[in-house]
Amino acid sequence: MALTLVQNLGLDDTATSQLTATVCEPTAAANDQQLFMTGNWFASSSVNGGSNWTFVNPFTRFPASAGGFCCDQIVLYNAAHHIWIWLLQYVSTANGDNIFRLAVCRDTQFGSWYYWDFAPKNLNAAWNKQMFDYPHMAVTDANLFVTFNMFLGNPWQRAVVFRFPLATLASGASLGYRWWATTNNGSIRLCRGAGATMYMGSHNSASQIRVLQWPDNSTNISWSDVNVRPWSGGAYSAPGPGGVNWLARLDSRITGAWVSGGTIGFMWSANRDSSHPLPYIRVARIRETNKTLIDEPDIWSQLSAWAYPAAAPNSQGQVGISAFYGGGTRHPGHVVGVKTATGWDAVLTKTSTHGPPDQSWGDYLSCVAHHSTAAHWVASGYTLQGGTARKNIEPRYVRFRT
Amino acid sequence: MATKSKKTTTVRTGAKSAGKPVTSGKARGETAAGAPSPEDLDIRDRLKSGPRRPAGPPLVGDTFERAAIKAIRDEVVPKVTDPKNRKSRK
What we know:
The structure holds two protein chains of two kinds.
Chain A: E1 4-10, H1 13-16, E2 27-31, E3 34-39, E4 42-46, E5 54-56, E6 69-78, E7 83-90, E8 100-106, E9 114-118, H2 120-123, E10 131-139, E11 143-151, E12 156-165, H3 166-171, E13 176-182, E14 189-190, E15 197-205, E16 208-215, E17 220-227, E18 254-260, E19 263-270, E20 280-287, E21 293-295, E22 305-313, E23 319-327, E24 330-339, E25 344-351, E26 367-369, E27 376-384, E28 393-401
Antiparallel strand pairs in A: 1-28, 2-3, 3-4, 4-5, 6-7, 7-8, 8-9, 10-11, 11-12, 12-13, 14-15, 15-16, 16-17, 18-19, 19-20, 20-21, 22-23, 23-24, 24-25, 26-27, 27-28
Chain B: E1 9-12, E2 14-17, E3 22-23, H1 38-47, H2 64-74
């Protein structure tokens, strides 16, 4: 199964205004000619399919709130309602609380955003010193789901899941929503490709995943626990040229999740062990019907580490990924790939010319199905090009297909 | 290789309202929302170095030794995946 890069575009300084960071956390989405990409600390849009990009400043695009725009962002395009959805995380105030902003615009008015703000104290008055961090965002047929971790200063407090009706987001009417929080699981990851039920995953332990589900037609959330083969966490290391360890920030949280054709999949970065000489991507595929484990087609290499996977099914049900690959003789590179009958096919979109001197990389990538071209995915990535400064970070928009 | 899952647990979610959205105009300029200087961003960038803070309860069994022993005993290692060099249309 050959894999083709339909578009493989590096965003230049004009597109990012050099508001780039070593921990870039890029996300990308597309609606035919309209493209939007976010990352630390830029946003950029195109109205001609990526031929030209226009910098959008997330610090100044919206009125000030909390401690100002911080960092984490996610963008999605929802074709069913013809809307763009842009999530921005804000810095905490002196009191310790922050907000996230959920901005929406219609594709007929691309760039004319309206927005809602959400603070922890909106959910519970006692959480007035807590902050949201590490968002994820995905859709079902009828709803937008958003997950966050919440912290009190530095210590983790809980994970929270929001459910917003897409129709209301599109209409701009008064927004009623549902939410749920747990202190049992962190960094809850939402599945791409969901239909009438959103599936989510989080580790219970280094040998068990909690699979949560929230149907569109229910006000209840439920979960099952699924045992998987034990894996290693701890301090990750994959030194590249010059001994630069680009994985010093890496941890084991689930970063890739999808549902397609009766299979739920989860991906995360596992540490080296006796069978894997370098960090690698653990994969667990679970039956949607009875939550039993199908198989664990991990992605690993003898030569370089794999890390930070994002995943999504395309509309034909094939699973695509976006991830990083590096260490050994190779600086970190960005890779897209696809599940095959026997394993994974993957292609490097770009390899860094340098390693990150502060050993920081990540923390997430995006991979989504292209809404109208059945076999295509849209993915984000980044590399260091020509130096080690944060201005040398080159975000990457990739559209690929089998 | 099916592993039996535990029974399903169900809980109720809560409801809230965020009201009507705020309609945003074009760029508001620095009086509305200021942008940090390049030097401030350099500092923010360096603050990201080092391990991330824990983002969930401690995971039981998250140690090298236990998992390594299990891996030796149980694992059928799939074939390696190494990416090919890119072949772009554009």
